[in-house]
Amino acid sequence: MNRIDFTHNTQAAEVIAAHYDSPPLAFVHSYGCQQNVNDGEKIKGVLVDAGYGLCDKFEDADLILFNTCAVREHAEERVFGNVGALKQLKAKNPRLIIGICGCMTQQEGVVERLRKSYPFVDLVFGVNGIDTLPQLLAEKMGAGKRLLKTPTQRYDVVEQIPIQRDSTFRAWLPIMYGCDNFCSYCIVPYVRGRERSRKSQDILAEFRQLIEQGYKEITLLGQNVNSYGKGLEETIDFADLLEQLCQQPGDYHIRFMTSHPKDATKKLIDTMAKYPQLCNHLHLPVQSGSNRILKEMNRHYTVEQYMELINYAKEKIPGITFSSDIIVGFPGETEEEFEQTLDLISKVEYMQLFTFIYSKRTGTRAAEMPDPFTHKDKTNRMARLLKTQEEIASRLAKGMIGKQCRVLVEGHSRQPGTLAGRLDNNLVVEFAGDAALIGSYTTVNIEDARVTMLKGSLQA
């Protein structure tokens, strides 16, 4: 694994500038997870560095880039549908450049499908090729031909890539890339590659810069943040990194995702308990409450080990809340095994769940497993799961009534004159307030709860 720094490509920028009569505009849309959102911010930064302006409407753009997701089949088909809708736009403006990047492009057969069925798509690049974008654009403009090659895996960690962040007070901060877990249902290791951790000095430098720029909430990102440090020359783990970050002066909160239960430790929980900058919320995806299914998923932990960590966190961090990912209808999941998942949900009492019906991903081991249950069976189970979770979350949210909570004001809410703020435990409260509060901390009295949406008022 190499560490390289991004460098401004003057020659590519000159080629791009010469291609247009006026400064060009780019439209970038990212699908999927927070890592993809952060990648999209870097794509925008690289484009601005190369001389592009940014626009919010693809009809105004000289360059359209879709930064794609490959986790579920539905996400892929949505991308293809949106790309197809650009055909008429390209017919009206032949000089328009259309590009596809991100996880989807790393999958076998996707580039060939784009080549054959979407002749108006001009270029493709992979998840680890953001820094090469100016050169690709210059090559496309110089040669006048399509650049559609399946991206190769690249294991360099590129630092100091320019970035155009979407928020002035909330920021994503990647600490590692890729995944070594190879869960049997998941395509991520195949499209994002193996684990590569950033050096702690590089993370700390970016973190300090964010604090100096006034960012109030910083979310550390990685496919499995708990395996941070593996492969580095320095001896460090995720809890050590958190401790270094929390020792930096400033008024901020830290969140992190995603944590894999097999690598989550009591040391991590102890660190969360020690530092008030670390939010009292843990996203710990369990996926299933059945040990047999967990083994088939290649998750490397048992329900008993998972609950041991949950109970330790409840003991050490009063008021901690949990969220998780659940897959309903994994191939061969029986009714009894689904009931075990419902039982786990009731024991943990998650504040939030991100639930998915199993989506077959070609190339993964689970895609070859027999699956006797119908989609209707799975949607019925999903309905039961959501009902169980709603009852739990509603009860937990009502338990917040009467409390005074410090919140980060994120923006306007749905009702005119109201704002939305996020609590330390990741719940959102709506309250009346001035827009000048957006991006700052304030204290709110919690007065009501409707399912998981809290209602409140500013503390006098």
Any chance you could write out the topology, listing elements then pairs?
Blueprint: E1 3-5, H1 10-19, E2 25-30, H2 34-49, E3 53-54, E4 63-68, H3 73-84, H4 87-92, E5 97-102, H5 110-117, E6 123-125, H6 133-143, E7 157-159, E8 170-174, E9 176-177, H7 188-192, E10 196-197, H8 200-212, E11 217-221, H9 238-246, E12 253-257, H10 266-274, E13 281-283, H11 291-296, H12 303-316, E14 321-328, H13 335-348, E15 352-357, H14 375-398, E16 404-412, E17 418-423, E18 428-432, E19 441-450, E20 453-458
Parallel strand pairs: 1-7, 2-3, 2-4, 4-5, 5-6, 8-11, 11-12, 13-14, 14-15, 18-20
Antiparallel strand pairs: 9-10, 16-17, 16-19, 17-18, 19-20
Helix pairs in contact: 1-6, 9-10, 10-12, 13-14
Q: Report the helical percentage.
A: 25-40%
Total strand segments:
20
**Span between termini:** 54 Å
- The CATH homologous superfamily of the largest domain is termed tm_1862 like domain
Shape: globular
How many alpha or pi helices? 14
Integer average pLDDT: 93
Keywords:
single chain; 460 residues; alpha/beta; Rossmann fold; pyruvate-formate lyase- activating enzyme; OB fold (Dihydrolipoamide Acetyltransferase, E2P); 3 domains; five-stranded parallel β-sheet; five-stranded mixed beta barrel; globular
Could you characterize the architecture of this molecule?
The structure is a single chain. The protein is α/β, with parallel strands linked by helices and 460 residues long. The protein folds into 3 domains: 141 residues, 3-Layer(aba) Sandwich (Rossmann fold), CATH 3.40.50.2300; 233 residues, pyruvate-formate lyase- activating enzyme (Alpha-Beta Horseshoe), CATH 3.80.30.20; 55 residues, Beta Barrel (OB fold (Dihydrolipoamide Acetyltransferase, E2P)). It is 34% helix and 22% strand. It contains 14 helices and 20 strands. The chain has a 5-stranded parallel sheet, sandwiched between helices. Strands 16-17-18-20-19 form a 5-stranded mixed beta barrel. A 3-stranded parallel sheet has the order 8-11-12, with helices on both faces. A hairpin with a 2-residue loop joins strand 19 and strand 20. Helix 9 runs parallel beside helix 10.
